[in-house]
Amino acid sequence: MSTKEIFSKYPNWDKWEPYFAVYDQYFEKYRNTSPVFVEVGVYKGGSIKSWIDYFGPNAKIYGIDIAPLIDKVEGASIILGDQSSGEFWDKTLPIIGDIDCFLDDGGHTMEQQIITFLKVWPKIKNGGVFICEDTHTSYYPGHGGSYKNAMNKNSTTFIEFAKQLIDGLHLAHFQTAHDLSPLILDMVKDIGQISFYDSMVVFVKGKQPFTRIIT
What is the pLDDT of residues 22-67, one digit of tens each? Predict the structure, then answer.
């Protein structure tokens, strides 16, 4: 069954319909194995129940929320915490351990999304997947967003942050000077893939050999 079919079995979740095809593309290889899966944004638990069904009984499922409307889901661990807090992640990530699949469906502010990525990415396993969804909030002033940071030049949006990672991904091909920050250069050293979809950015860990073949 696809993620959309499985989610249809459980009420109390909030997703945009195109997301399911992305989930199927990146998460399928982990089904019925023993992945560590983390989702920020528990709401009423319907999404977590769906992931338990999708990944199978050997998966370790974690849901994180600052104020979930449900505090217990059989087959998963619910963790209370603020995703915009670096201290929270420093305390929580050692408990979870290395992660195969991470889905940020939390509060969607720029601070929350960027801090979450910076803290979680080092814990993603080689070949693992990090998805930040609802990235359309990068254009919502109410979430700290705006087109090219027009509303707040002292910060950045998640989309603009991800654009810098794209530049960093191509660093070996630069033939002129750059102004990429040490933070960006450190983050991209083990990013193998960045894919953009409407309202989603997907990161896959693990550099692939970049070898030119001439025949």
Answer: 999 999 999 999 999 999 999 999 999 999 999 999 999 999 999 9
Number of H helices, E strands in the chain: 7, 7
Q: How far apart are the first and last CA of the chain?
A: 42
Domain count, the chain: 1
Contact 169, 204 (CB under 8 A): no
Spatial CB neighbours of 176, under 8 Å, sequence gap ≥ 6: none
Whole-number Å distance between alpha carbons of 140 and 175: 35
Side-chain half-sphere exposure of 45, counting CA atoms within 13 A: 12
Q: What is the pTM of this model?
A: 0.95
Phi and psi at residue 46, to the nearest 5°:
-65, -40
User: What's 124's DSSP letter?
Assistant: E
Alpha carbons within 13 A on the beta-carbon side of 181: 7
Phi, psi dihedral angles at 26 (to 5 degrees): -100, -25
Query: At 48, is the secondary structure helix, strand, or coil?
Result: helix
Q: How far is CA 213 from the centre of its chain?
A: 33
Alpha-carbon span 90 to 157, nearest angstrom = 23
Separation of alpha carbons 73 and 30, rounded Å:
21
Neighbours of 32 (CB within 10 A): 11
147: CATH: 3.40.50.150
Domain annotation covers residue 26: yes
